[in-house]
Amino acid sequence: MNQILKTSYNLSMSKNESLVARSLQAVWHPCTQMKHHEQFPLTPIVRGEGVWLYDAEGKRYLDAVSSWWVNLFGHNHPQIKDAIKQQLDTLEHVMLAGFTHEPVVALSEQLAKLTGLGHAFYGSDGASATEIALKMSFHYWRNTGKPSKSKFISLQNSYHGETLGALGVTDVAIFKDTYAPLLLQSAQMPSPDFRLAEAGESAEQFAQRCANALETYIAAHHDELAAFIVEPLVQCAAGMGMYHPIYLTRAREICTQYQVHLIADEIAVGFGRTGKMFACEHAAKQVSDIADFVCLSKGITGGYLPLSVVLTTNDIYQAFYDDKTVKGFLHSHSYTGNPLACSAALATLSLFEQTPVLQENLKTSRYLQEKMQALTLLPIRHMRHQGMIHAFDVQSSNPQFSRDCYAAGLTHGLLLRPIGNTVYWMPPYVMSAEEMDWLVDQTALVVQQSL
Ligand SMILES: *Cc1c(COP(=O)(O)O)cnc(C)c1O
After folding, report:
1. How confident is the model over 207-266, as pLDDT tens digits?
2. Which helix (H) or strand (E) is 230 found in, with range?
3. Rg from Cα positions in the chain
């Protein structure tokens, strides 16, 4: 008997069952066909600790996807928790128009130092950071007397969020097609995702070929282009599509030559995920050598509170600085620069300062790379990794592979969320060797069961 029926018959339910039943009645869950939950149960979580999530009966799940790519240092981290608690005793929130506070100033200063981009504009989630960058770029060209530069381009299979503006530069059919009549038109450039290369072509050769195509397009259309938005190094939502950093170097050169902004969407890959603090650093010394705008969110608070930021150059900032109100950037969100979220972000940054996180991650990543060789016994291809992202594509005739694999994982206490036939690990940076061994063994088992 399903849980909704049990509630209506008032039969006795476990704590888990009752939480799930109430959720299915009251909560409309994201990215979900709710009817699938008739067959496939929701997973109720009551607490987290390190890489583990626990349900009401004490069953635990290894969070191999960092709760949608946001968690960096594990659940229930004492230092991040303490920072938020301390801030809570001082100031929970104040509007950021006309007012300021220490956490937002300190965070902006630190992010400026880390990226080389000195002006920080805040939002609350990734999609709103994309919106902010697109609007700022468009507005910059109006303010500087080039209003015809009003269009955006992105990569094939790109993902930049799901509000209408962000969806306009996103290229994932299942999220986009239904809403197509509502969206901005934008052109998609060939993706340098190495899985799309010709046989015998190296990652670098393929990236160069894609950059040549970008150059041809921009050379012909730059008069009407405001910006090129790109996910540096890894197109995560496309199924962890990885590419050679030369593409970013070339894209920067082309954008500079033709006066088109480059927006680096580091929402998923920022804060150490790809092996450097920011993915752009694989192509240049710092983010500002590649990007006119960088969008950050997800890991910025260690996965504790919603926060996003767009950082940009002094040149762009100055184009808005004027006696006329309408030349200013009049965009706002109620919770812009929320002090609690900023304090979580500051605590997260201080963890990067206190411990050699990137070096430790290198060791973790190497260990996983070695271990994952055992998976080559399965029908898989494109085994790949970039920092703390490891992925492979499963060759399976099961049209429901991703759902079956997700379900089998949960049965075994493993939170995997394959994207199509791509299985990936994007875990918190704090896995022990035993946990990694367990992760690899269970993944092999679960994939085998879902083929
Ligand atoms: C998750 C993501 C977004 C959107 O962030 P939300 O907080 O989910 O709105 C945008 N771009 C990239 C690259 C992402 O991974």
Report:
1. 999 999 999 999 999 999 999 999 999 999 999 999 999 999 999 999 999 999 999 999
2. strand 225-230
3. 22
Expressed as residue numbers, the domain containing 144 is: 78-354
Nearest to 303 by CA among 25, 69, 31, 5: 69
CATH number at residue 382: 3.90.1150.10
Q: Report if residue 124 sits inside a domain.
A: yes
Mean pLDDT to the nearest integer, 344-351: 98
**pLDDT > 50? residue 1:** no
Q: Does the beta carbon of 303 lie inside 6 Å of ligand 1?
A: no
Question: For position 372, what pLDDT does the model report?
Answer: 95
pLDDT for residue 12: 79
Number of domains in the chain: 2
Ligand 1 centroid from CA 128, angstroms: 9
Contact (CB, 8 A) for 439 and 64: yes
* Confidence (pTM): 0.97
If asked whether residues 56 and 164 sit together in one domain, one would say no
CA angle 335, 340, 346 (to 5 degrees): 115
Same domain assignment for residues 431 and 371? yes
What's the CA-to-centroid distance between 236 and ligand 1, angstroms?
10
Domain co-membership, 350 together with 361: no
Same domain, 124 and 249: yes
